[in-house]
């Protein structure tokens, strides 16, 4: 078989002819898309796999998969594809609100999730991320992030047919289904993994396996340890003495994307999920997918090329599907994944971490700086803003940014870790350390929002801080994402330590079972869950009816107060009303002087309480208080 040539026009016919051996390629809609996207896909394939003898063969197989997948694509999903052509920025709307949960913990099963649709509608969700639901090893499976089959749902929660059915029902309720695409690794029980270690032809190179420590030692000179509590370095030893790459747990084996057969196989799994009705794939651990000796093996240029190639395949066969990047890395690297051609959505780990940082220090400067400097995104893409996720909180701010404010990155991270795990004097937080690495001093923090914010410790500011943190995530743009249960102030669940499958992973402290008792109190303002739910619901309602909250555009606002964060969400143009957000992260009331607000007309509106506010007197904000004001610039 010849290699790919540099010019796509000389390969296109051969690729199509070969693909036609495996699939019928006739549909004019598909063929149009194929012709539109083939040149880019071909260029990417050539860059990644130009030296391989199987480049043409694998690219043809990808095209065959894409066509077969398009032929099987349900009509309803094709209609969704059309919608995204007409309204490609649908996910930028002020009506977007995400929720995330574990199917088993939150609702028992997929059937249980279905029963919760009315509640999701009550809350206002338009996006539901179900944590991994695929077949995975018994016992510890990293919460399902060790996938044994992308085509089978864990039988304890349901079946793939039920998932597809659920996607349809969610769509009818205007909720888009989001699932993980765990494409950096599979579990050691995946068919490919078994075949690879057995040396079955075609599978030997699916993973990175070495006969001895020579290559692992060489790689480990430059790669980070991600789960040092589980194993040192990036490799684990197989029973036969060989070594295999495992960035995360020892049972999660990294796929070898230098082999185009791996790309082809994963493109097939991706298209399969797209046809079940998934609308957004959360691209798990994107930074790790390409390895090169002598580098940190994170965020290498090829990782971006692979994402682009996956996108081109999608645009041929499931155009409405979007990618959300999970890159919890340096902020300079986070944004590199966000573009129309790679991930149209991305977690905003910097804003998340700095929200907590501001609450701990009572100093909003780092967060203010991040919003002013690191919030802008390419048009048509969006942040997913969250208060916390199923994972630990890592302090991923840039040391250079902190240094400008006289903050020393290393010692500040130490302080934050101590503060949030309850070791610092006077702390209100009840978090638990995660993956403390004595070699590097690195550590991260786990805990539910309520426990980290002071509710567990009965701190008087606890409820206010939970609302304040969410008010930031809800007002900075993009898709706000709530960890379900946090809206009723669920607390840490320390029972994870007694289950051997979870005992060594403190992230389980913040993944409690559905807090049914707290949900039952959600309408009772005399209770903490009722207060949090009531106040959060009011914010969600206000957000939905505020078009200025659509998109990501944000302009910093200097509140001239050391504890007050400020920003504006612009209106249609510079003269139009806009939303001014002020948030007091301090423990004392904050006075905003009339002069500070004199760029706006005197009569403003609090869009949460719907009451008029006279700016000519200035404002006094309570401790941990905030306002969302519709203001009109002075003409
Ligand atoms: C991502 C997930 C995390 C998991 C890891 C390995 O970071 O969010 O929960 O442990 O990937 O799949």
From TrEMBL:
CDD domains: AmyAc_Amylosucrase (cd11324)
Signal peptide: none
SMART domains to which the protein is assigned, alphabetical: Aamy
InterPro entries xrefs: Amylosucrase (IPR044077), GH (IPR017853), GH13_cat_dom (IPR006047), Glyco_hydro_b (IPR013780), O16G_dom_2 (IPR045857)
Name of a matching Pfam family: Alpha-amylase
Span of domain Glycosyl hydrolase family 13 catalytic: 102-527
Full protein name: Alpha-amylase family protein
Species: Microbacterium pumilum
Lineage of source species: Bacteria, Bacillati, Actinomycetota, Actinomycetes, Micrococcales
């Amino acid at each position: 078989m010849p290699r790919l040539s540099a010019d796509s026009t000389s390969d296109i016919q051969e690729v199509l002819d070969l693909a036609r051996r495996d699939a019928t390629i006739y549909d004019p809609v598909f063929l149009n898309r194929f012709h539109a996207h083939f040149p880019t896909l071909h260029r990417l394939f050539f860059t990644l796999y130009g030296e391989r003898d199987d480049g043409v063969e694998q690219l043809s197989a990808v095209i065959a998969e894409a066509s077969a997948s398009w032929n099987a694509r349900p009509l309803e999903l094709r209609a969704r594809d059309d919608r995204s052509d007409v309204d490609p920025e649908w996910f930028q709307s002020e009506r977007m609100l995400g929720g995330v949960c574990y199917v088993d913990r939150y609702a028992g099963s997929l059937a249980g999730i279905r029963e919760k649709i009315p509640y999701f509608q009550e809350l206002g969700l338009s996006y539901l991320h179900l944590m991994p639901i695929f077949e995975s090893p018994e016992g510890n499976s990293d919460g399902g992030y060790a996938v044994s089959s992308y085509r089978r749902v864990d039988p304890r929660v349901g079946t793939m047919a039920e998932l597809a059915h659920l996607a349809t029902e969610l769509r009818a309720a205007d909720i888009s289904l989001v699932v993980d695409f765990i494409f950096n690794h599979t579990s050691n029980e995946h068919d490919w993994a078994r075949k690879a270690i057995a040396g079955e032809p075609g599978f030997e190179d699916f993973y990175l396996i070495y006969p001895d420590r020579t290559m692992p030692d060489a790689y480990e000179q430059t790669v980070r340890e991600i789960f040092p509590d589980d194993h040192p370095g990036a490799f684990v030893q197989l029973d036969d003495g060989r070594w295999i790459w495992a960035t995360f747990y020892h049972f999660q084996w990294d796929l070898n994307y230098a082999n185009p057969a791996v790309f082809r196989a994963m493109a097939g799994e991706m298209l399969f999920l797209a046809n079940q009705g998934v609308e957004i794939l959360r691209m798990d651990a994107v930074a790790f997918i390409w390895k090169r000796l002598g580098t940190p093996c994170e965020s290498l240029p090829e990782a971006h090329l692979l994402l682009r190639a996956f996108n081109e395949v999608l645009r041929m066969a499931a155009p409405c599907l979007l990618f959300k990047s999970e890159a919890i890395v340096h902020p300079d690297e986070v944004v590199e994944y966000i573009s129309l051609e790679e991930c149209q959505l991305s977690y905003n780990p910097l804003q998340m971490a700095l929200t907590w940082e501001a609450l701990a220090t009572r100093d909003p400067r780092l967060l203010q700086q991040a919003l002013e400097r690191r919030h802008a995104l390419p048009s048509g893409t969006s942040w997913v803003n969250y208060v916390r996720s199923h994972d630990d909180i890592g302090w991923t701010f840039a040391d250079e940014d902190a240094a400008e404010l006289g903050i020393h990155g290393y010692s500040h991270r130490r302080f934050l870790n101590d503060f949030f795990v309850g070791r610092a004097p006077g702390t209100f937080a009840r978090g638990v350390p995660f993956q403390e690495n004595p070699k590097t001093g690195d550590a991260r923090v786990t805990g539910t929002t309520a426990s980290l914010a002071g509710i567990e410790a009965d701190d008087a500011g606890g409820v206010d801080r939970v609302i304040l943190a969410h008010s930031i995530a809800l007002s900075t743009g993009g898709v706000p994402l709530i960890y379900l249960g946090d809206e009723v102030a669920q607390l840490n669940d320390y029972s994870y330590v007694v289950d051997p499958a979870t005992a060594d992973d403190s992230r389980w402290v913040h993944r409690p079972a559905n807090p049914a008792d707290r949900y039952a109190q959600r309408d009772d303002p005399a209770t903490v869950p009722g207060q949090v739910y009531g106040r959060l619901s009011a914010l969600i309602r206000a957000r939905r009816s505020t078009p200025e909250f659509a998109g990501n555009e944000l302009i910093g606002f200097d509140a001239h107060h050391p504890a007050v964060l400020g920003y504006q969400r612009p209106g249609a143009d510079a003269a139009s009303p806009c939303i001014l957000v002020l948030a007091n992260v301090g423990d004392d009331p904050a006075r905003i002087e009339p002069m500070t607000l004199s760029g706006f007309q005197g009569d403003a509106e609090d869009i949460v309480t719907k009451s008029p506010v006279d700016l000519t007197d200035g404002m006094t904000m309570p401790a941990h208080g905030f306002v969302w004001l519709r203001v009109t610039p002075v003409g």
